[in-house]
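Lecture notes, part 5. Sequence design as translation. It can be helpful to think of inverse folding as translation between two languages: the language of shapes and the language of residues. The source text, in structure tokens, appears below.
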């Protein structure tokens, strides 16, 4: 065991500072680079409030809000994925496993259908869509879906396997209903839903960042309280209880935190796929067996992946930018295939 100690301890001295530096680098790159080519001097002037009106508008009202929103959403998606993978002991778990993404999708679809189509069926103006209400609507739907699965799992005697099966089944039903409603709507206005479904930071404002901020702060604030239970929840219920853990209560608490983080993030930016799946595995790969390092590394890498993914989508797509959900899917598929090869 002592022979492994140096190998386990070595990454902790440099990997987290390096990841934090990568966050800063990706943030700076996302601010300075974009579809509109703005000289670095003008970007710096805009950040200090002394630049041209156009530069200030692009930097302060367009780029910065979407970057901050992406950082917060990335942190939440990654942390939610790590929590779910830990308590379900399922390496393929992510927010969609609990039906959170599908529940949010159905709620957003229903919300737009009833508030726009039924209330004013003759209007086709995108400006009349109640977009500002999409984040809370999606969050409510995601939390409701997670709650349904949670209650069903308890009725069936709570176990990670049953949570997984309930999540897959209910998520599939909710997704099918949402897609059926979208197909039946048949309106030009469904483009806003399709954009949201792909996972996008397009047109995200400071309101979206402020919507996510309380959930991010609360989620991070809960980590000291759930850290020891989270360590024990990696094991079977009998083993965890032998250490004095109130298994059901702590399982429920961690599940609630993960669902709240995922639901709020999905509500704000849509279901950005693979972030909750691949980031925890990347953190484990870099941290090795050093579990205390996995948690902060997952949070930091979540911010990096979403920031860089959004930057790639903006630069690659030009005026018609590629949604970040498409970028993360393309990045995540090879990782997913490599992961499947390792899963027994």
């Amino acid at each position: 065991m002592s022979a492994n100690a140096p190998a386990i301890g070595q990454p902790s001295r440099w990997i987290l500072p390096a990841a934090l530096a990568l966050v800063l680098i990706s943030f700076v790159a996302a601010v300075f680079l974009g579809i509109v080519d703005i000289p670095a001097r003008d970007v710096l002037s805009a950040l200090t409030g002394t630049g041209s009106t156009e530069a200030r508008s692009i930097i302060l009202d367009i780029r910065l809000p979407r970057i901050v929103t992406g950082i917060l959403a990335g942190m939440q998606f990654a942390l939610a994925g790590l929590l779910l993978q830990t308590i379900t002991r399922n390496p393929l778990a992510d927010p969609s496993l609990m039906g959170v993404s599908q529940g949010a999708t159905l709620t957003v679809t229903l919300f737009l259908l009833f508030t726009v189509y039924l209330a004013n069926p003759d209007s086709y103006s995108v400006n009349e869509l109640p977009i500002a209400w999409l984040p809370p609507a999606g969050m409510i739907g995601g939390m409701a879906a997670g709650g349904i699965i949670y209650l069903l799992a308890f009725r069936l005697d709570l176990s990670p396997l049953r949570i997984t099966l309930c999540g897959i089944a209910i998520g599939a039903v909710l997704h099918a209903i949402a897609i059926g409603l979208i197909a039946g709507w048949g309106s030009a206005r469904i483009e806003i839903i399709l954009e949201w479904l792909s996972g996008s930071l397009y047109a995200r404002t400071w309101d979206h960042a402020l919507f996510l901020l309380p959930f991010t702060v609360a989620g991070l604030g809960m980590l000291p309280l759930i850290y020891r239970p989270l360590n024990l929840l990696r094991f079977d219920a009998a083993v965890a209880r032998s250490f004095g853990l109130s298994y059901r209560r702590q399982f429920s608490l961690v599940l609630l935190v993960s669902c709240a983080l995922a639901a709020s993030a999905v509500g704000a930016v849509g279901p950005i796929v693979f972030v909750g799946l691949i980031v925890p595995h990347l953190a484990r790969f870099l941290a090795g067996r050093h579990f205390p390092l996995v948690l902060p590394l997952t949070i930091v890498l979540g911010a990096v992946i979403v920031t860089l993914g959004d930057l790639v989508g903006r630069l690659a797509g030009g005026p018609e930018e590629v949604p970040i959900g498409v970028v993360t899917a393309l990045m995540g598929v090879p990782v997913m295939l490599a992961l499947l090869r390792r899963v027994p």
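The translated text above is only one of many valid answers, since several sequences can fold into similar shapes. The domain at 15-22+41-340 is CATH 1.10.3470.10 (ABC transporter involved in vitamin B12 uptake, BtuC).
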